[in-house]
Structures are given as C-alpha cells and as structure tokens.
Design brief:
The complex is a heterodimer of chains A (370) and B (382). Chain A is α+β, with helices and mostly antiparallel strands. Chain A contains 13 helices and 9 strands. Chain A has 2 domains: 165 residues, no CATH class; 121 residues, no CATH class. Chain A has a 6-stranded antiparallel barrel. Chain A has a 3-stranded antiparallel beta sheet with strand order 1-2-3. The longest helix of chain A is centred in the middle third of the chain and has 28 residues. The two termini of chain A are 50 Å apart. With 382 residues, chain B is an alpha/beta fold. Chain B has one domain. The chains are: A alpha+beta (370), B alpha/beta (382).
Chain lengths: 370, 382
Amino acid sequence: MKHYMTLALLLLTMLVSHASNSTTVNEYCENILQKDPPDKHKELFQLAVNYASTTCVNIMSGFENANYSSKYVLENTDHLGLMEQLSSTLLVAFPQSVFPNSTAFANAWLTTPTSVPINASEFADIEIIRGNINIDSTTGVSSQKITVNGLLATSFFFNTADASQQNYCISLGAKNCTEAIENIATAFNIYRHYIVEYKSNLIAKTLRESIVNWDIYKKEAPALGLVSLLATSRVHKSLFYNPNDPWPGPPPYQVRALEFSLVLEHLPDAENGNRTEPGLALEWIGFNDWDNDVIPWGLGVTSVYADREDAKSIGHGITLHLDNKYSLGVIRRGDDNAIFFNISLSEYFIGKKHKLSDYKSDLKKLANKL
Amino acid sequence: MDKPIVLLIHGMGTHEATSTTKKFNEGLKEGCDFLGQTGFDLDSIELIEFNYSDILDKIRKDIAEHAAETAELLPLLTPTVTDSNLIAKIPEMVGKISSMQTKFGDDEFIYTHLLDVILYAMTMYGSDIRTRCAEAISSNMFRAYAQNRGFHIVAHSLGTKVVTDTMRDLFDNTATIDNKDKINPNAFRPKSLWMVSNVSRLVGILDPYGDPQDFSNCIVHDHFDKDTGNKGAAGSMYNLRNKLDPFTWFKTYKGEPELGSNITFSDVRKIEKESTFINPHDLAEYIANPDVTYRFLATLFDFSVTPKQYFDGMSAYTATTVEGTLKGKLENIKDTFSDTADGVAEASSLSDKIDILQSAYEALQKINEETKVYLSIEENNQ
C-alpha cells in the first residue's frame, strides 16, 4: 500500500513538473543572471545578459537532441547585435593606430559560430594574460606585457610601460589600459555563462562518478600487499594510461601475487583431535573480481603449510575468494585432500588477543573440540 | 575582477590539510616584506589546496600493515626449513619483501618520499590521484569563470608531475562541447601555471606519458603556438628552478614558454627557524625570493613596486643567503652528482631509474648534513 502511494506521488510530481517545465526553465534562466550591471559598458552588459538567458533556455530544452549544434544555441539570440556592440566598443577603446592587431581582434568576434557539435573555441571569452615582468637591471624600472586573447586565436597586446598606450586609455577615463580591457571583459564575458555552466556540469559528472567508484573500491576491495598492487597496476596498465578514456576509475579485478594468510585446515584423514590445524597459506598468483554484481569472487593457486605429524606438511591447491572477505580452498597433501578457510587477520589483531601464539593455541583448543 | 583563485598542489611526503597553504603564505609574506609591501593582504588571493597525500599515506599504511601481518606469520614456517628446498627459500624471499615493506609505514624521509614517487608513477593510484586533481582543476576553473575571476595553478615538486599528467589528460585542442572527458583549452584554461622545482621529466622516467617538454606532444605549456601549431593548456607558464635544488639536477625541465618564463636562481638561505635545516627544495623558500614574489603577484592582479623597493628587496634577500664556504661546498656536491645526472639519459632498466631517484634524495640529505656541520662550526666561532 505504501509503495502504491509513493508511486502515485511520484507520477503526480512528474506530471506537474512536466507541465510547468518551460516556465521553470525560463524563470531559472532569467533569475540567475540578475546581477548589478557594471559601471562601464552597461549596454554591452545588457546585451550579453540577454544573450546568456536565451542560450540558457536553448541549452536546457533539448541541446543534446540538436546534436550540440551552435545554431541551436544561437536561436532567438541577438548574436550579431551583441558582437557588433563588442567590436565597436573595442575599436573605440583600443584603436589600431595605438594598439597593433586590435582591428583584427575586434573583427574576429563578428564571425558567426557554425560548428556541430560546438567547438567551444567559437564561444571564447576575452582573456587577459598578465605577462612576465621585465625589470631593467640598472634602473630597476619594470614593465609588463599584457596579452588579450579573443576569438579564433586572435590576440593583441599592450605594455604597462608604453606611455602612448597608457595615456590613451587614461584619456578615455580608465586608470590604465589593463583596467580598460577588464571593464570590457567584465561586461561581455557573461554572454557565455551557460556554455561555461553546461561544460562544467558535463565534466564534473564524469569526474565525480569516477571518484565515487574509487571510493567504493577502497571501501569494498581487500587491501593488497605491494607485490599485488604492482601486479594489478601492471596488468591494467593500458586502462590507467589511456588518453582516450583518462578517468577509468578502479581496476575491474585485482591481481593477487605472493599473498600470505593464516588458515584453518581440516584434514579428514588425520587422527581424531588433530584433524583441524592452523596453517599458513601462500597464494602464489590469483585474481579477485571485487566488483562482481552477483557476488565478488576470485581464485588463486595456493600452497598451505601446516605442522602435521601424520601427513606431508606442505600441500598445494586452489583458493576460492568470496565476497571480498572470505576465502576457502582445497589442497592436496600427499595422498590426502584437505580443506581450509582463511581468517581475517586484521580483524583478529584489532581484537583482544594480539599474539599469533595465543591465536594458535586457541585454534588448537578449538580444533580439539571439533 | 574579483580576487583570483589559486590552486596549490603539494609535493612529496605527508601534508596535513592547509599546511601547503600556510607554507605558501609564509613564503609570500616574506617576499612581500622584502619588497617593502608589509601591508600586503594575503586574503586578496583565494588559495585552494589539492591534497593527495592522504591517499598515498593510506596506501603506505596499508602496505606496511599487510607486511607486518606477513612478518608475524613467518615464524610458523621455520620448522619446515629442512623439509624442502623450495620452502626453505620462502622465508628468505618474503623476509626481504616484508622488511622493505614494513619500512614504508614509517615516516622516514627517504622511504616516504621515494615510495610516494613509485606509488604515484607505477601504480593504479596515480590514476586515482589524477582524477581527483582533474576535478579540483575543472571545478575551480569553471567557478572562476562563472564569477569573473582569474584561475591560476601553483604546483611543487611531485605536484608538477601530477598536474602535468592531469592536464595532459584533461585538455585537448580538438575537444567539442559534448566531450564528457576533456576540455578545449581554446575556450577554457587556467590563466597561469607555476611549476616550482619541476620534476615532471625526472618522475616521467617511470611511466609511459612521454617527454613533457616536447610541446608537440604535450599540451601542458603556455597558450602560444610558435613551434607546434598547438596552443597550450595554460595562459602562461612559469618554471622556477633553484640551481642548488638537487631535484632539478636530474632530467632538468628545459621547456621554454613564450608567455611566462623560466626563472632560475642559485641561492641557499640560512634560515633561523625551528631548526638549522636548510632546504633549497622547499616551496616557501622558492616563493620568498622577492624576484619570484613580484612576478607571481603581478600575474594575478595589478601589482608593482618602485625600482628602489625592488633593489632594496633583493639586497635584503641576498643578505639572508649563504655565500662563500657553504655555497662552494654545495656546488661541489652538485658536481659529485653530475655524473649520475649525465647517466640519466642512458638509464633504461627499472633499477637504474630508481637509483637515479634515490640519488636525488641522497643529494638533498648530503646538503642538509653539510649545512648542519657548517652552521654548527659557525655558531661555535661566534
């Protein structure tokens, strides 16, 4: 009954959210950008914000279905209006006569993006790179080259020590040329706010999923010794160094090599009272499918040593690992077969009795009762 | 522009949360003081730490515990030594492995540091660390874009290798918007990348990434395409190298960014802090050089000093450095190790490669010893 109610509630929620979907999108896209306009270039800022809101609606309503097309993002935007405003603003603040390459830089923005899927560089921002300071070793006077990067790999630059450039910017009311270009960038760069957000979410999803899987691995899979760790890493090398799939998450299975463990061995043919003995197992090589959907399992080739009077002290066989915790196996000891299972040592040592000798005598007592 | 975001990526060894931030600020403050900028507000930069040392600490601890358990089990085998030749060899073999492994849990300098390099470059946990580093880079970079702020990265020592590999995997000049794994640096990139004691080539001998200073194969450089036709994944790139830092003696990084620069100096400082330990590999020591401080801050925002402040700052800094006997001794150590450094090119086997890494640590320890002896003689003379 409870389940039916939950289901009905879920359906109702889905219906309501579907009905109001477009309104919600519009509200979200309008509200999130309600920022105070900057002091300079208010008109450019307004055009950029409107542009961003429209691309937000476009991207949130079926961008994937439109194969990530630039045209779909541009629908209903005043792309040309925004870019013309930017271009003319740039040419006024940074004329070619004072700032070489600035015309090409300004004109590049008038190119309309066309790519499918979007080549994100068609939605570049105005980027200001403060270059290396140049310090005159005799006078100590320093100067800095400021590079401004824009669309289609265009750029122009100016120098903080170039008086004619700086004076020009100051004459137009800025503190210096860096501030002048920063004002334009601040007003304009918001135009691609949703393209940034979209890409950010897309990448974050991939990376966070991979990180969660690593966290699960560390929690669920048994810890490995150094030899096994190196072996597991070596076997999956192409997985962990694949430039086409760089965030693979944890290994699909563990390789086990030279793993020691304490086991309790039962030899049915031994004399009564000596049938169950503690033993030492060495798994030479094996694997553990730690993430198996049904039950984690693995196999290993194992030798077990037990101090037996009436049988060979060394036996060889197979270990079966189960559920990342338990291991059991069968070995051949001379002409006899024995079964064994592992005891989680770490769990034991955390408990009251710390000495292996205590454990061994405990096991003896236990074995005598069996 | 609002205050810039700087992502700090630490080097080898154990780093408590915020310790890298503290160290970095310590260096920055000292550098500002030299430059007469005593009122510089450290809060004008948002420092974010990417801390991966807890991952490596945990693995080291796991390995040591695992080995300790194995060591506890070994006595059980003793009665069988005469049983067969095969079994006789096991305790010896495992003994060797576990005596090596149990040391890994200790915080002994050489084991912690060398093992960090091996665990990062030769095990799957390198991929784990890179994935987390990529998340730190992309989340902070996109946050900076959304808030109209600058985003910069400062990596130190092993951190330079981690950030190089991560950015190689994260950035791609052909990535389209729907690419779920990669970011196109023509649209989104950090404004500057600061590599402090760049060991990306040295540690790179252990993994298949290829030479990072070959810009035609590695995207981790400045956003400039003079030679390769491919613009790099960072706006600008700076490589800081103290010539007396032994980690820069082997497989020295020699890539030459056009936007940014390689800042090289050759100073050892006599520091009267908690001990007389002198460390030319130290992050704070690199940043405290006023020439570095100045260039770094001027990359983030409007920051300039007068010629007098600059010259005074450099003289005040030089007064804290060690000249003469000690510097000469350190240069001798450098010469001693240069043979090993030359041998790096031919090193092909894994043991050769690990020997090279070990030499770097030995050089650093030798520097510390020489410094301690020198300083104690100096103290006695006073």
